[in-house]
Every structure is written in C-alpha cells, then in structure tokens.
Amino acid sequence: MKKTAVILFPEFCNYEISVLMEILALNEKPVAFLSSKIEPFRCEEGMKAIADFDINSINIDEFDSLVITGSYADGLYYNFGDETLLNLIRLFNKENKLIAAVSSGPMLLCKAGVTDGKKIIAGVEREWFLEDPKMKLTEQQMETLLDVNDLEEMKKNGATPPEYILDGNILTACGWKFREWAFAFGKYFGLECYPLSFGLD
C-alpha cells in the first residue's frame, strides 16, 4: 500500500485532519509527515509536531495522496511563500495523485495553479485573497472556487451546498465538513471508515 503525505507547517489545523488520520490508522495505510524544514511546529491547538521527512527528500513514487489542512493567516502566509510546497503540489497533480485539502488549504491549490477546470470548495471569503498583499490571487486563479459567500447564496436560493467536492484528483471541503471530507478520502481508496465512530450515520 502506498503512503499518504501529510503536510505540517506552523499553525496547521490538527482537528481538521483528526478523523482522516484515524481512518488511515485503522486501515493501516502508511503515512509520512512532510515539511519544508525539519523543525518543531505548533498547530493551531498548541500541540507541538515535527515532520518525518523534508519535502525534497521523498520519492514521490512511494505516495498516492497528499493532504493539506487549513490554517489562519500566519500559517497561510507561511505556505503561500513556500515555493517548495507549491512545487510538491504541482508534482502530485502532474502525476494525477489525490490531493486532499480542507478549510483554507484549497487556496494553496489555486496558488499552485492546479485547479484549472476543476471545482473546489473552501471555507474562506475570496475577497481576502484579492485584497491581502501577502496572499494575492486573481479572480482567474479562483475561477472554480466555491467560497463561503457562494454557499450562503446557494442556501438562500433553496439549494443544498455540497459537503465536499471531488473533481478528478482533487478533493476539497470546508473545515466544518472535515468528517465528510475524511470519509470521501477513505472511499476513494476503498478504506473502511466506520461513520458511527465519528458521530455520523
């Protein structure tokens, strides 16, 4: 069984990947934690974590998937300036390996330029990325994005917003749908997910 790569970075959000990590553990799917620097990071919740491998040291042929959690501004600023991480995203996409991003994580996919023609969803407001000079994106880069305002508009019009979007090799969701996103990941690889264990029918 090939490995899943999980990206660690300052201010990463641990709870958004908690269910996914448990699903991977229950199915004994190997995981490697990666970062651009092998040094301790604190997640949003305050726990300290350190990656197993430097991004540049891995053999991508050993992996079938890449996981990117969300973060608040400081973590996003760190990632938007991390060309090593952006290149890794491009490489996984070129090899058509699953890229699973949640909450604000999908915005890195826009920055990396891998979302052309593929719908994504993120728990952000696109205006932030149009206005913030540290995370400047264009409307074109976010053309396929469903943001929180789009979801609210869908609700007003009587439509049910998607719990997640799987478009080709890209799986995205808002942070509050982290369980559904994790199950979609598991389903993609044929893993047992045990929804009752995580409070879902």
Q: Span between N and C termini? A: 28 Å
CATH classification, class level = Alpha Beta
The geometry reads as globular
Separate helix tally: 7
Provide the succession of SSEs.
EHEEEEEHHEHEHEHEEH
Average pLDDT score:
96
Account of the 3D structure:
By secondary structure, the chain is of the alpha/beta class. It is 32% helix and 19% strand. The strands form 3 sheets. Strands 5-2-1-6-7-11-10 form a 7-stranded mixed beta sheet, sandwiched between helices. A two-stranded antiparallel ribbon has the order 3-4. The chain has a two-stranded parallel ribbon with strand order 8-9. It is globular. The model has no long low-confidence stretch (mean pLDDT 96).
Key attributes of the depicted protein:
about 20% strand, globular, Rossmann fold, about 200 residues, two-stranded antiparallel ribbon, single chain
Fold blueprint:
Blueprint: E1 3-7, H1 15-26, E2 31-35, E3 41-42, E4 48-49, E5 53-54, E6 63-68, H2 73-80, H3 83-94, E7 98-102, H4 106-112, E8 120-121, H5 126-131, E9 145-146, H6 148-156, E10 165-167, E11 170-173, H7 178-188
Parallel strand pairs: 1-2, 1-6, 2-5, 6-7, 7-11, 8-9
Antiparallel strand pairs: 3-4, 10-11
Helix pairs in contact: 1-7, 3-4
Brief summary:
With 201 residues, this protein is an alpha/beta fold. Helices cover 32% and strands 19% of the residues.
